[in-house]
């Protein structure tokens, strides 16, 4: 069957490095999650995926058929036989659709309860062969009801995981905001202001002196220029008189004319003398003019210097005021985030109550099933079935205990992180007490889980051949308990969240731009750590998706988790990963799970960046190839804008089929675990049969 290509890395600009940010965001949806986060997030869903539903039905049907066959020689059908027959039919109804167990919880619940009611009065029957079959079938149905509780617990666990992640993120944000608020509050420009004040006084004195000298020299210059003009005007008057005298000599007698000419010559000589005097005065005025010009330039320079000093003083006042405003805003933001921390922890505790109630219900029903199975006489004919039932329910009880332990450890980690926040949260003392109590709860739950695990292992004694699925479940349980011991709050305390650990930078005079850059560097460092840890949720929390896209991404993360779980089950049961076991289709699914999306390249890219503040609240980040991406500040968070060519519409369309696809993959994983799919060929056939229609719809739905 030809399936549509799921080569997401080839669509929507997914190639390249920074150029493949869109692809990274797509592929990141399929990628591996951080081990610790996986342990917490999958703490209850894991048992649900490797549940005993298939074994429950197998045991029930086997015991029913065995009981009926053993009584097949009777001439009449007894009430016990009728009950077994009816219960068998109910069991068969559960697998009516192609051999897979129905995924409808209400449907299964009604069937299991009907089986319980049908067999309740025959568990202690004295009729030959009835009691063992009825007892094990009743136990199978009861364990099935326990599985339903486990699945409900899984839903609550997913919500609790989100609340825990929110709380941890808010603690980090709180520390960053309050640290920056305190740093901004420490900004003090008084020394710089005093230095400017001293400089202004010095330049003001110089200006006063220069202005005095300028006034004095300008007065001398003005006086000399006036005197030179007066003398020159007098010389001009005498020139006119001499001309007039010469003109009046015409028509006079020689004697009279000679006297007039002599007089005119004398007046001309006086004019010459006056002109020489005016020239001397002008020359002296020129000397003063040079001095006045120099003093004027000096005065203008000092006035400009004083203006610069005043501007610098005003700028310092603005910086001081801005630092105060930043401190106030960050303090207010930290206060709101502290409230978010409390709210997330409260939501976590509320969800935990529902989770623990579901686990209690699962433990009660599974315990009842175990007690019923142990009560069944282990005769030669049914000893193997009875022992397998006891082992199966013991393992399920251990898985439930493990889920409870991981939940307690998760709470302890969240509370420890909040209690150790530095600067401390407002309710730090109460958080510390709560963290210590949670840690003790985690200790006790871990011990109980390990005891249940040992009981589960011991229950396998006497079983000649242990199936691979049971071995896989025990191995997975062992790994989860080992991780629990390794990550427990007392053994490895949650790291203290401090200002240095989140990269908070101290505010400095005029450093608003560098402050933004420092915050974005911190965010990029967090993204790099998320990439190293393969923590999808943490990585995506730094990307500026709208609410609709974020919801679609969350759905696709669920698909990724289901595919990875199937891959793990295939490795355990079929001795081959999904890609090797299922060929091209398995390869397509593996690609969707994103198992290679965080293998080095992204981490390497995030480690070599340059940062540039381009606008208030916007920082441009460039990698070594010159490719850029922009971060914007939304409220108190810095978020990376998704690439413009990211096919968001395609992601949303894909998510419409995500729940259906995830459910189908989960069912296949359960069938592989239960041994219903025991070969690679069977797996390939089931994948094509069950996933083919979904892929065809998905391929037709993406435009």
Spell out the blueprint of helices and strands.
Blueprint: H1 21-30, H2 35-41, H3 45-49, H4 53-70, H5 79-94, H6 105-119, H7 130-185, H8 190-248, H9 254-375, H10 383-419, H11 428-458, H12 468-487, H13 512-533, H14 536-540, H15 547-573, H16 578-593, H17 601-606, E1 609-615, E2 618-623, E3 628-634, E4 637-640, H18 648-655, H19 658-674, H20 680-701
Antiparallel strand pairs: 1-2, 2-3, 3-4
Helix pairs in contact: 4-5, 4-7, 4-10, 5-6, 5-7, 6-7, 7-9, 7-10, 8-9, 9-10, 10-11, 10-12, 11-12, 15-16, 15-18, 15-19, 16-20, 19-20
Description:
There is one protein chain. This protein is mainly α. The chain is built from 20 helices and 4 strands. The protein has helices at residues 21-30, 35-41, 45-49, 53-70, 79-94, 105-119, 130-185, 190-248, 254-375, 383-419, 428-458, 468-487, 512-533, 536-540, 547-573, 578-593, 601-606, 648-655, 658-674, 680-701; strands spanning 609-615, 618-623, 628-634, 637-640. The protein has a 4-stranded antiparallel β-sheet, with helices on one face. Strand 2 and strand 3 form a beta hairpin. Residues 1-53, 55-75 and 488-514 have low confidence and may be disordered.
